[in-house]
């Protein structure tokens, strides 16, 4: 079939994205019809000349960009000739074919790149092994969903709102995941696509319309004083189980998360302030500094283990803590995180102000403390209202 009389016109122009960065976009016009602009993924730093349709500086990177644009023009003209062999070419068909074959960035590729970036930053504030593991799990669910759809992958410019809803239904009805996990998983894909928009890889995020709500976690699990006493030197526990119970109790009296517990070093992190010994360092999760007073039982445990608290893997700790709870008669589903919850509750119920508890736990906002730890024991409420009777 013949080419259209109106010659293909290729025009490049810089365009700002939502983050304020400028990327070079390509506009195609043919037969009186203009196709939607698409990104070249080339960042513009003020050296673009609209008249010559090229970058004007003579450094190596600029020369490479100009070569890329030349190759892009040739590829577009070649693709036009290929389409013309089959049907009368339309500029929108040309745009679609070109993007699908030369501009294809897939969702799994995008997720994997993000995962690699997180992995490379482990150890920095906000980038722990736990963070990497959580994102690895979310990445795995994207891969599994594509297999469920009998597809290897999907180009990010092919993702639609319906794709997002199908993914949510897959997690909810096929995998039976909780609402909060579903929200976290779809939010990760939305964030990946937003980053792609900001870097000029796609024009818009098709999933922004999806709003999954987070539900309340329900009643917080924590130990009361008498339950913690059941864990202290209990004759029902073997030596090995007592060591695990003691590590858990150390969390109950300090509020250290499991990841922080594994990094705790008495030599590095214990200091004195105004004659009182305290634990000081930065949270692994968010990099926020915290100060924990060493209470009487905390000091006892440090002395018992020569300042080296025995810590197993998180999986083993959680496994043994459940056995310990059953052995001593605690009817609660214990995990290492319950130790941290117990510390927050213990302090609040000993009349430590909310703002102080927030600082001890290393929360980035007192709102976090209010949300998860503002559950007072009935006896505390009665004590504070006794003057009203």
Beta-strand percentage range:
5-15%
Residue-averaged pLDDT: 88
Rg, nearest Å: 29 Å
Number of individual domains: 3
Q: What is the top-level CATH class of the largest domain?
A: Mainly Alpha
Number of helices: 16
User: Globular, elongated, flat, extended or rod-shaped: what is the shape?
Assistant: elongated
- Proportion in helices: 40-55%
Q: Characterize the main sheet.
A: 4 strands, antiparallel
Tell me the distance between the termini: 95 Å
Computed structural class: alpha+beta
- What is the total tally of β strands? 9
Q: And the CATH topology of the largest domain?
A: hpI Integrase, Chain A
Order of helices and strands: EEEEEEHHHHHHHHHHEEEHHHHHH
Q: Which architecture of the largest domain would the CATH scheme give at its second level?
A: Orthogonal Bundle
Low-confidence stretches: none
Going by CATH, what is the homologous superfamily of the largest domain?
Answer: Intergrase catalytic core
């Amino acid at each position: 079939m013949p080419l259209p009389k109106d010659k293909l016109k290729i025009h490049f122009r810089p365009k700002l994205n939502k983050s304020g960065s400028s990327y070079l976009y390509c506009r195609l016009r043919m037969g009186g019809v203009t196709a939607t602009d698409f990104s070249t993924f080339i960042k513009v730093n003020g050296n673009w000349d609209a008249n010559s349709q090229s970058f004007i500086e003579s450094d190596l990177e600029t020369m490479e960009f100009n070569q890329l644009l030349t190759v892009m023009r040739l590829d577009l003209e070649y693709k036009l000739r290929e389409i013309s062999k089959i049907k009368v070419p339309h500029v929108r068909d040309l745009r679609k074919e070109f993007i699908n074959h030369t501009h294809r960035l897939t969702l799994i590729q995008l997720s994997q790149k993000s995962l690699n970036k997180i992995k490379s930053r482990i150890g920095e504030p906000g980038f722990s092994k736990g963070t990497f593991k959580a994102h690895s799990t979310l990445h795995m669910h994207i891969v599994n969903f594509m297999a469920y759809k009998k597809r290897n992958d999907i180009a990010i410019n092919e993702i639609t709102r319906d794709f997002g809803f199908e993914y949510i239904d897959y997690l909810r009805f096929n995998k039976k995941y909780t609402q909060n996990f579903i929200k976290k998983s779809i939010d990760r894909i939305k964030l990946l696509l937003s980053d792609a928009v900001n870097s000029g890889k796609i024009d818009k995020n098709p999933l922004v319309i999806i709003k999954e709500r987070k539900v309340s976690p329900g009643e917080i699990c924590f130990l009361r004083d008498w339950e913690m006493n059941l864990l202290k030197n209990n004759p029902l526990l073997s030596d090995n189980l007592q060591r695990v119970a003691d590590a858990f109790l150390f969390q109950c009296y300090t509020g250290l998360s499991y990841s922080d517990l594994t990094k705790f070093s008495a030599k590095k992190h214990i200091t004195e302030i105004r004659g009182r010994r305290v634990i000081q360092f930065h949270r692994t999760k968010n990099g926020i500094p915290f100060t924990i007073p060493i209470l009487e039982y905390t000091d006892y445990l440090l002395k018992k283990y020569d300042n080296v608290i025995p810590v197993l893997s998180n999986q083993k700790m959680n496994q043994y803590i459940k056995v310990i709870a059953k052995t001593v008669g605690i009817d609660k589903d214990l995990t290492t995180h319950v130790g941290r919850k117990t510390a927050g509750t213990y302090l609040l119920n000993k009349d430590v102000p909310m703002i102080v508890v927030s600082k001890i736990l290393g929360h980035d906002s007192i709102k976090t403390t209010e949300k998860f730890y503002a559950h007072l024991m009935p006896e505390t409420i009665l004590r504070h209202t006794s003057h009203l009777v």
